[in-house]
Amino acid sequence: MGILGMSRLAWAGRPRVLSPRAGSTPRTEPTGSRSVHESPPIPFSTRLPPTGTGWIEIRTPTSRSAGEHDDHGSGCALMRLFHCDRCEAVLAFDAHECASCRATVGYVPGDRRPCVLQASTDPSVFHLDAPGDRSERPMWRCLNAAWGCNWMLPVDSGETWCRSCRLTRGRPDTGRPDAIAAWATVETAKRRLIHQLDEFALPIEIDSASMPDGLVFDLVYLPGEGGITGHLDGLVTLDLAEADDGHRDGLRRRLGEQFRTVIGHLRHEIGHYYWLRLVGQSNDIGVFRRLFGDERDDYRAAVDAYYAGASSTWDRARFVTGYASSHPLEDWAETFAHYLHIVDAVDTAAAHDLVPADRAGMLVTEAVATLPFADILDAWRPISAAVNAIAETVGAPAVYPFEPAGVVVDKLTFVHDQVAAHTRRDRFYANE
């Protein structure tokens, strides 16, 4: 639709002219704000270059491995408690080992949970500790296991990185320990995001020649540069400085934000990616414009005006955050992120028996996408109040300093309805 026009962006002094698709959000804004720069020129390669080169390419542009994630999500609940297949102890989502029985554990994307693994005669190959044919299929760990990734993939897939890590096109090389630590932190948050999107059956395909509408991440570490987080044409760029708590909190205070987290950044930027796929080419674009505004409005002028007068106050009955008021596309992305926050938090609370019994049964047994959003929000309100009060008692800031009301609830409901509609039709576009 040509709503954003042309944007001249640069990387390492080399200007490129980009032509964004509708739904993309190119921008260069004040240091620390959400903005987009063109990705660095990283050659595709399956081999790691020597340390000290600054960047490495960590995947070839291929789609999902055969058999790695054969089933789609069903819109079911998300970050439940996971349990060890042997001793039933609680397992962390990113566990490599059961803390109770010391069983070897790995996250299996097809099962969407960490599973106990059996060793084989080859120390790099494992089998699922489960009866039946599934236990016979050899698997190995993602090559990024040394940096915390616990995801598994089939040996016969021909891949060495898991489906989450393959989405990362570029990252710092191992010659920068500080950068690698930040990258590992962001990858942990990204795996949680991919898990949640899988549960919603929202397709995730790696950007490639055969999948030009796919998704890819650049996780960049350029100290002192700032302002390099955003989305453009399926490329999510994240400044790894956001993994530093002190840096991130400083920006939060300077920009007058109440809430700034790594997972929040990822959920916001992925919201931009899904706008075109869930809304922009659907039959609900008119409803979107009535709720959020016209996405064809001048993006650069709107965002510049927002930063010129940004403050910590905004119309909370109309916008979930202050930044959401800057432009309809940012309103969508912020609302999408908060929708993911709320659904994941409610599910986690239900799994920990923190939801009243009359609501917990519904949340545990029903697919989230089939529930009215009003029921999810009703379950969330007392949870949010409780965790914020608990945080206050220990001198910590509020965990979720927002109270959705007014049109914000209508917008959250719209996001929920788009996700639910996609889950039912199992394809992106309503009018294709």
Low-confidence stretches: 1-67, 69-78
* Beta fraction: 5-15%
Percent helix among the residues? 25-40%
Individual helix count: 10
Spatial arrangement of strands, main beta sheet? 3-11-12-14-13
Radius of gyration, taken over Cα atoms and rounded to an integer in Å? 21 Å
The secondary-structure element order is EEEEEEEEEEHEHEEEHHHHHHHH
Mean pLDDT: 77
- Gross morphology: globular
Sheet of most strands: 5 strands, mixed
Cα distance spanning the termini? 17 Å
Oligomer: single chain
Name the structural class.
alpha+beta
E-strand count:
14
Give structural notes.
The protein has 432 residues and is of the alpha+beta class. Helix 2 packs across helix 4 and helix 7 packs across helix 9. It contains ten helices and 14 strands. 34% of the residues lie in helices and 13% in strands. Strand 6 and strand 7 form a beta hairpin.
Keyword list:
alpha+beta; disordered N terminus; 3-stranded antiparallel sheet; 5-stranded mixed sheet
Layout of strands and helices, then pairs:
Blueprint: E1 7-11, E2 14-18, E3 55-57, E4 82-83, E5 90-91, E6 105-108, E7 113-119, E8 126-128, E9 139-141, E10 152-154, H1 163-166, E11 168-172, H2 177-199, E12 216-220, E13 230-232, E14 235-239, H3 245-254, H4 262-280, H5 285-292, H6 299-308, H7 328-351, H8 357-365, H9 373-393, H10 407-425
Parallel strand pairs: 11-12, 12-14
Antiparallel strand pairs: 1-2, 3-11, 4-5, 6-7, 7-8, 9-10, 13-14
Brief digest:
The protein has helices spanning 163-166, 177-199, 245-254, 262-280, 285-292, 299-308, 328-351, 357-365, 373-393, 407-425, and strands at residues 7-11, 14-18, 55-57, 82-83, 90-91, 105-108, 113-119, 126-128, 139-141, 152-154, 168-172, 216-220, 230-232, 235-239. The chain has 432 residues and is α+β, with helices and mostly antiparallel strands.
